[in-house]
Amino acid sequence: MAAVAWLVFATRNSESRARLFSKTLIFYSLFSALQFNLIYDRVDILMVLSLIGIFLFWESLAGLNLVIGFLVKLVPMGFWPFKFKELWSQNRKRALLSLWIPLAGFVLLYASDFIFPGELAALSKHTTRGIQLESLWATPFLILHILGFDTSGSIQLTFGAQEIQSDLISETVLTISKYFGFVMLALVYVFAGSDMKTLASRNRVFLIFILTFLCFQRVLSTQFLLWTAPFLALSLALEFNWFIFILALVIFALTAAIFDPGYGPLVRYDEFWVSALAIRNSLLVILLGLYLGWRRLIPRIIS
Predict the structure, then answer these.
(1) DSSP one-letter code for 155
(2) Helical H segments across 98-241, by residue range
(3) d(CA 84, CA 98)
(4) What CA–CA distance (Å, rounded) separates 237 from 249?
(5) Do 15 and 201 meet the contact criterion of CB atoms below 8 Å apart?
(6) How many CB atoms lie within 10 A of CB 153?
(7) Which of 301, 292, 288, 294 is closest to 136 using CA atoms?
(8) 58, 172, 178, 281: which sits with the fewest CB atoms below 10 Å from its CB?
(9) pLDDT at site 299
């Protein structure tokens, strides 16, 4: 249903509607199939719908969709600075009026604590989380282990996820991992998002934001990759690139394989699965780089 809604609305203003529709459908279906049904058994399917809603109604109902998405997960509100930046360049009064968006989101979030007591306390505990096993931050730690460094007994279950708990990771590194992702997102706000009017430019900004979040936050759950699927599908439908297509296929395939059957062996530092995760995370960074402009370095023959 999410795929159908995405395709119908995303292609409504396209001159080549039927062709773009069919291409996006193929790519989206392929990426979704590679993730299997294990990843769909998560609240993140609602997150995808939220992101799609924000994208599709960027010009008219972006504020409402940002607030609704914020109640699903905190990440959607991260798109508000892009809206503020866009409005500021057009009408500064309207930009200041858009401050109601984050304000309404936080008011509703605090109000929800009365309906679901303990929700805010649970959210605050997430600030104390360690480095998740699947994240880019954990990759050096895992590689150190398979190279012979003693880091045994350093993975534990927290908030339903496996996290690194090791003396090798100092408080300084933990603190940096906690805030570094936000620093990178701040750079994205400054240097990206100037043009959100066209389908292609807005899609690129959404991809850059999501991939930056995935690459540099200390928490990276398997199902987070689901967020990228519709935007990658539309990107390839608008401008096909063999390198990005193959890269995306490998990323989704490795993610599915690592989640099951590889997760158990990964927790036990299996060399094969640690290597697979390291490759997956490296490819995510490369994919982000391509949308930031590295794709100019790709030989024309594979574009």
Answers:
(1) E
(2) 100-115, 119-125, 139-146, 171-191, 199-216, 229-238
(3) 7
(4) 15
(5) no
(6) 8
(7) 288
(8) 172
(9) 47
Kindly report the length of the chain. 303
pLDDT at residue 122, rounded to an integer: 61
Q: Over the chain (303 residues), what is each successive 10-residue block's mean pLDDT?
A: 56 63 83 73 76 83 73 79 85 83 80 68 65 88 80 62 69 82 88 77 92 91 88 91 94 88 82 93 94 63 40
Bridge partners, residue 220, by sequence: none
What the block records as the tokens of 150 is 């003693």
The answer, as to whether pTM is greater than 0.85, is yes
3-class DSSP assignment, residue 279? helix
DSSP H or E stretch at residue 132: strand 131-132
How much helix, strand and coil, in percent to the nearest 5, is found in the chain? 75, 5, 25
**Could you count the other beta carbons within 10 Å of the beta carbon of residue 264?**
10
First-to-final CA distance of the chain = 31
